[in-house]
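Narrative of accomplishments. A recurring question from our advisory board has been how the design workflow behaves on a single, concrete structure rather than in aggregate. To address it, we present the structure tokens for one chain from the evaluation set, followed by the sequence designed for it. No filtering or post-editing was applied between the two.
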């Protein structure tokens, strides 16, 4: 603390002590207890009664529960290098984010630094102008600017800084007010009461108060003789020269006498950090945000290679002052600019936490820091006394990485035994799974009352139907896991290529797991997620399962317990399969591109689009399934009707291979066969929407059909579009323009037409006289499906367990070096290739 500039001094014994009281509810209250603070001469103070912070406070509570927030903008955030001038880019970003909070109805108070830096730029120019020519030239050659008094800099910079704030906030329709605070404002009852009432009145008017400590009234070496004790709940003043009975004198490491005080730690009012904490407590803020130039608190200074435990410094997701481990954290020296250091921020945050105000310490250089905090994202370090029952997202990912190494090191037989055990437990605990699933379905149904719009309620019914498990589904899941267990025997370490590079030099390529997968799921059947988890274990990958509130937490908890029990039986880390039930934002995991290897979305179209838009991690999900069935003029109508009905209605209708648009040759409609083709769909409850050409060209036949809002729509399982085309060329053009290149079908008796269709359609799967529902990896002999890929840069089509694998090259020699092999294409280079299955030479 000495290095950080924090003075530990005894509080006078006359200071009145306030006992801690019960927990503080996280609702904003207008009534507040009055506080009494004695004058400096009396040396006694009573802090306004505050309650301890709610131990259930989570980041996810911030968007809805935080009404009043105080934001401290540090010097390192606001100013450019060497505290010289203001960083307009960072300031503009902060102003925009604060304005957004104000328009959301939040009450925002800013404690700003930067006046000294702003004034330094102005006064330095003035100082140079007042120099003689000799002094100016001398200063330039020595590269040392004239010394400037910080008080003068603050006086010169305040007006300019506030003018800048005012100009920027006015662009967003937000008004501001400046409040300069001194020590006496907290020590004198009347001053403090007036200050608080003024700020509250400004907040009530929607004005953003911008506060700062008035540096003009203090000498450059003067210590603000004012402390906050975060253990005895008092505010009092002290004499810096006083040495009470709690002070001990001993010889320090440098040989000089030093004072040591072992009383409760205190925080001086020497910087805007402590000012922010005091204001937060006095004004009943629910959250205090301290922005500096670091991401939060690390287990060791970020520039250091290792922390006390011997590992690289890690960012702390939460900081619990009651945790003894926190006492061993070293914060390093003070920052290069400003008067507060990391230790001062920590002490201020502890003080605020002890009086009911949670604090987040984050990096103000991140342009969307405030936005992420109010989205409930996991950024910075949250000061809380909640007992951590979960780790930060990046910590989870690191633990999963370690578990994946343990999993891949197992013999293939052990991975197979794990999966066989999972299958047996699923069969055995079928009733438990069904009971939990029914609870989840009931909860989902009860979340929508009769007043919600019909479309929303219908969508909820679809979600409940997708989530619903049956005995048949559970039995099918157990059978699928047994099939996956067979794949586990040869998934890892499979030799896929063999090359004889030279005499005694052999090259092999073998399969290895990717490492760590993230499966994010929404309104999907829990058995689908369980299959993905089983595929990951079979392929030696660890998996993180992250759902939403609509993803059946009780069902997934039962299934996850089955997986972890099976892993535990083979002494494998439970982190190999982690279920994340906490309300952490998806983005916190999607941003871990340095820790996760693949993302597998399972859910609706919105989820897939959201994942792709918010991550740099490769996504292996079901591609958009805008599938078509084209009925050619010579098609067998009975067969066509059967294929159409199966393509749309088979299974539950959920899945990317379902029919979305039916294309019918115009001659068939002219002959009166439209009803024969779409009748089975309508009997099954599917709403058929008429395309624009069908409505215009065959108005009579389509009169009972509602108009399709778009032919680029991926409909739910209860609807599809119907459109007319005049030729096979028009059908192919329509599919290539409106389709998603997933799976498209032609129904025809003409082999040449089918061949033309298969060449002209650009989809990953093109079928002839069969249902689109055959577009899955099991039908293709690839085992259980992981996803569907339509991009041309990858292996297109259904993806089985190989989608979770990558490969490594193994080169085995006998002291070979490139120098002895000679130039390329000489006789020493054999490059003989053999088929790994039959051993035949395939070099040609």
């Amino acid at each position: 603390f000495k290095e950080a500039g924090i003075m530990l001094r005894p509080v006078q014994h006359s200071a009145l002590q306030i006992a801690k009281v019960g927990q503080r509810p996280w609702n904003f209250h207008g009534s507040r207890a009055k506080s009494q603070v004695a004058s400096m001469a009396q040396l006694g103070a009573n802090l306004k009664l505050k309650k301890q912070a709610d131990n259930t406070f989570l980041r996810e509570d911030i968007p809805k529960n935080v009404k009043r927030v105080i934001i401290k903008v540090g010097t390192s955030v606001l100013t450019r290098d060497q505290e010289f001038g203001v960083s307009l880019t960072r300031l503009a970003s902060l102003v925009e984010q604060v304005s957004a909070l104000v328009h959301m109805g939040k009450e925002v108070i800013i404690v700003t630094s930067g006046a000294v830096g702003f004034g330094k730029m102005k006064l330095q120019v003035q100082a140079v102008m007042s120099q003689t020519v000799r002094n100016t030239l001398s200063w330039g050659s020595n590269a040392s600017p004239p010394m400037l008094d910080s008080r003068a800099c603050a006086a010169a910079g305040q007006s300019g800084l506030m003018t800048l704030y005012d100009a920027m906030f006015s662009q967003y329709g937000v008004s501001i007010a400046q409040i300069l605070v001194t020590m006496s404002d907290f020590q004198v009852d009347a001053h403090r009461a007036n200050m608080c009432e003024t700020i509250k009145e400004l907040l009530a008017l929607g004005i953003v108060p911008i506060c700062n400590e008035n540096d003009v009234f203090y000498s450059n070496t003067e210590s603000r003789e004012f402390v906050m004790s975060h253990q005895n709940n008092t505010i009092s003043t002290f004499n810096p020269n006083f040495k009470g009975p709690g002070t001990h004198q001993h010889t320090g490491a440098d040989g000089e006498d030093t004072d040591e005080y072992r009383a409760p730690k205190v925080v001086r009012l020497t910087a805007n950090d402590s000012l922010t904490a005091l204001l937060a407590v006095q004004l009943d803020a629910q959250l205090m945000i301290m922005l500096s130039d670091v991401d939060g608190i690390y287990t060791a200074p970020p520039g250091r290679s290792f922390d006390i435990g011997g590992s690289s410094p890690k960012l702390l997701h939460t900081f619990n002052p009651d945790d003894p481990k926190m006492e061993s954290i070293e914060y390093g020296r003070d920052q290069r600019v400003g008067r507060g250091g990391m230790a001062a921020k920590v002490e201020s945050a502890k003080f605020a936490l002890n009086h009911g105000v949670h604090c987040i310490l984050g990096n103000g250089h991140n342009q969307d820091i405030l936005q992420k905090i109010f989205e409930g994202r996991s950024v910075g370090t949250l000061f809380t006394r909640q007992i951590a029952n979960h780790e930060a997202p990046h910590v989870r990912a690191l633990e999963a990485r370690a578990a994946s190494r343990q999993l891949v090191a197992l013999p293939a037989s052990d991975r197979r035994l794990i999966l066989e055990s999972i299958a047996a437990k699923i069969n055995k605990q079928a009733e438990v799974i069904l009971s939990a699933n029914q609870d989840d379905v009931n909860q989902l149904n009860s979340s929508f009352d009769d007043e919600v719009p019909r479309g929303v309620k219908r969508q909820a019914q679809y979600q409940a139907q997708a989530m619903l498990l049956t005995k048949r589904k559970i039995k099918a899941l157990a059978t699928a896991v047994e099939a996956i267990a067979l794949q586990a025997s040869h998934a890892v370490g499979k030799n896929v290529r063999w090359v004889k590079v030279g005499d005694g030099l052999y090259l092999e390529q073998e399969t290895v797991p990717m490492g760590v997968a993230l499966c994010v799921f929404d309104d999907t059947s829990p058995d689908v997620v369980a299959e993905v988890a089983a595929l990951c274990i079979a392929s030696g990958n660890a998996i993180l399962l992250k759902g939403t509130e609509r993803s059946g937490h009780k069902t997934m908890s039962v299934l996850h317990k089955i997986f972890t029990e099976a892993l535990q039986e083979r002494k494998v880390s439970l982190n190999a399969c982690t279920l994340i039930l906490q309300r952490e934002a998806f983005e916190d995991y999607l941003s871990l591109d340095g820790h996760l290897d693949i993302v597998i979305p399972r859910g609706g179209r919105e989820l897939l689009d959201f994942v792709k838009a918010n991550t740099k991690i490769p996504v292996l999900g079901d591609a958009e399934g805008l599938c078509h069935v084209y009925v050619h003029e010579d098609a067998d109508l009975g067969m066509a009707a059967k294929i159409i009905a199966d393509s749309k209605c088979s299974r539950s209708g959920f899945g990317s291979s379902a029919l979305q648009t039916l294309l019918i040759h115009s001659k068939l409609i002219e002959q009166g066969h439209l009803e024969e083709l779409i009748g089975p769909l309508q009997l099954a409850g599917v709403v058929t929407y008429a395309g624009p050409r069908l409505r215009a060209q065959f108005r009579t036949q389509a009169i009972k059909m509602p108009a399709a809002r778009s032919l680029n729509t991926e409909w739910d399982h209860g609807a599809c579009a119907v459109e007319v085309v005049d030729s096979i060329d028009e059908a192919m053009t329509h599919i290539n323009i409106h389709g998603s290149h997933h799976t498209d079908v032609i129904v025809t008796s003409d082999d040449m037409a089918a061949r033309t269709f298969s060449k002209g359609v650009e989809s990953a799967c093109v079928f002839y006289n069969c249902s689109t529902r055959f577009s899955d990896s099991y039908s293709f002999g690839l085992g259980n499906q992981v996803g569907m890929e339509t991009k041309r840069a990858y292996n297109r089509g259904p993806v089985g367990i190989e989608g979770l694998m990558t490969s490594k090259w193994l080169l085995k020699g006998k002291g070979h070096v490139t120098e002895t092999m000679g130039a390329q294409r000489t006789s020493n280079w054999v490059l003989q290739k053999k088929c790994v299955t039959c051993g035949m030479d395939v070099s040609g």
